[in-house]
């Protein structure tokens, strides 16, 4: 993920190049000849393929408005505004528009990776050299987390049933276990969830017991270990549906504890947005909204995205995943339009796996599904690798690296690929 594209005035190109190298020392940078050309190139690229740097633009073009438009369009891996003499009001305006970073040329120093800039939140050093995080940026979602820090929490939601959330969570948990991670799969469909059945278990840990003196207490985070995979534990749902309300107040605290006891937390949720699901969404490092290709998908996705934003989930922490697609079909970018509320969301796809996937999961063989490989499990591995890489938590396992380097589901050549082929 080293491809970048920029638009700026001719005299600003050297400064923009320095800013790009400060963010990514192995960057490959191309310059668009117009603002419209920049937006078109980003739109035609695969989701997340290009990082964008908007520099001081020629007369008639507002650099901050252009950056805001690109953030609104979505599809870019990161939108950066680079200029000189950055003011606090400019940073605030960019933050409100969804721009990811602001770089001040005056703080770049002499070398391409010179250390400059300070955190807007606490005055500490920046995660990325010379880049000033905007006030709304989450420090947990940038850079490589230090050893001993909280594990990533990935929460999978949908606005309708039958989209395949449970299958995706089970496949992702199995894949992460094969990569050597200690994984907790948490089922927050507290009344009717059956995530445990994908691993051949007769039940998960009864979450209604969590936090009740004498009925689980400190053992609640241990969960139920999956046979043949001691590093994978399953928690939830509630043994009796009528006890679901007993578990809901404790979900936020449970997730916090789990994130310090394992390497990855994957959360399956109910179709409805209960208090438990809301707490998980707010605590998540990535909230993945799962949809499919059935009629009504856009409306359900819009409802979920709007609610997530109202709950305070930053748009940059939201991703959308289109499940059960065909490798021959193209991503439906209409689902990411502004009216849906996902203009800043990364977009992913997982492929239809056929009857074999359903048979293996229903018989409790999620681990065998991951080991055997299929269009479905391989695409889930690719999505998981990209999400963990974004969070700086991709494991060094060979399988994880291969999943990251594989072509992303639905990936197609963008402007940079076509330019290189033409040379």
UniProtKB/TrEMBL annotation:
InterPro entries: CobQ/CobB/MinD/ParA_Nub-bd_dom, P-loop_NTPase, ParA/MinD_ATPase. Coiled coil: none annotated. The keyword Aminoacyl-tRNA synthetase does not apply. Keywords: ATP-binding, Nucleotide-binding. One of its GO terms (biological process) is negative regulation of cell division. It holds the Pfam family CbiA. Gene3D superfamilies: P-loop containing nucleotide triphosphate hydrolases. One of its GO terms (molecular function) is ATP binding. It comes from the Bacteria. GO terms for cellular component: cytoplasmic side of plasma membrane; cytosol. The keyword ATP-binding applies. Residues 155-206 form the CobQ/CobB/MinD/ParA nucleotide binding domain. PANTHER family: SEPTUM SITE-DETERMINING PROTEIN MIND HOMOLOG, CHLOROPLASTIC, SEPTUM SITE-DETERMINING PROTEIN MIND HOMOLOG, CHLOROPLASTIC-RELATED. This is CobQ/CobB/MinD/ParA nucleotide binding domain-containing protein. It comes from Thermophilibacter immobilis. The lineage of its organism: Bacteria, Bacillati, Actinomycetota, Coriobacteriia, Coriobacteriales.
């Amino acid at each position: 993920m080293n491809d970048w594209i920029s638009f700026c005035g001719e005299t600003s190109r050297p400064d923009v190049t320095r800013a790009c190298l400060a963010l990514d020392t192995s960057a490959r940078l191309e310059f668009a000849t117009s603002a419209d050309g920049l937006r078109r190139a980003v739109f035609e690229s695969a989701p997340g393929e290009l990082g964008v740097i908007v520099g001081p633009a020629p007369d008639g073009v507002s650099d901050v408005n252009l950056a805001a438009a690109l953030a609104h369009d979505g599809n870019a891996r990161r939108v950066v505004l680079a200029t000189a003499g950055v003011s606090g009001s400019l940073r605030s305006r960019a933050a409100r528009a969804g721009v990811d970073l602001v770089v001040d040329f005056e703080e770049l120093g002499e070398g391409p990776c010179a250390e400059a800039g300070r955190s807007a939140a606490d005055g500490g050093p920046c995660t990325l050299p010379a880049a000033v995080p905007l006030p709304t940026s989450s420090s947990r979602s940038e850079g490589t987390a230090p050893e001993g820090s909280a594990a990533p929490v990935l929460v999978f939601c949908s606005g309708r049933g039958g989209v395949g959330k449970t299958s995706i969570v089970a496949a992702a948990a199995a894949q992460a276990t094969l990569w050597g991670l200690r994984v907790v799969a948490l089922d927050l469909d507290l009344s009717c969830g059956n995530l445990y059945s994908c691993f051949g278990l007769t039940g998960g840990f009864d979450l209604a017991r969590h936090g009740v003196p004498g009925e689980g207490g400190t053992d609640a985070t241990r969960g139920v270990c999956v046979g043949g995979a001691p590093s994978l534990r399953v928690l939830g749902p509630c043994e009796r549906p009528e006890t679901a309300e007993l578990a809901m107040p404790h979900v936020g605290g449970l997730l916090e504890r789990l994130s310090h006891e394992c390497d990855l937390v994957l959360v399956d949720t109910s179709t409805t947005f209960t208090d438990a699901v809301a707490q998980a969404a707010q605590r998540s490092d990535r909230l993945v909204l799962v949809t499919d290709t059935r009629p009504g998908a856009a409306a359900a996705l819009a409802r979920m995205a709007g609610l997530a934003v109202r709950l305070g989930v930053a748009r940059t922490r939201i991703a959308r995943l289109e499940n059960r697609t065909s490798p021959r079909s193209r991503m439906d970018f209409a689902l990411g339009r502004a009216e849906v509320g996902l203009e800043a969301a990364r977009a992913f796809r997982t492929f239809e796996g056929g009857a074999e996937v359903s048979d293996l999961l229903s018989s409790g063989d999620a681990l065998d599904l991951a080991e055997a490989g299929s269009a479905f499990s391989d695409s889930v591995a690719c999505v998981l690798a990209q999400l963990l890489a974004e969070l700086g938590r991709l494991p060094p396992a060979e399988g994880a690296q291969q999943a990251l380097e594989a072509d992303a589901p639905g990936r197609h050549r963008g402007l940079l690929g076509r330019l290189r082929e033409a040379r």
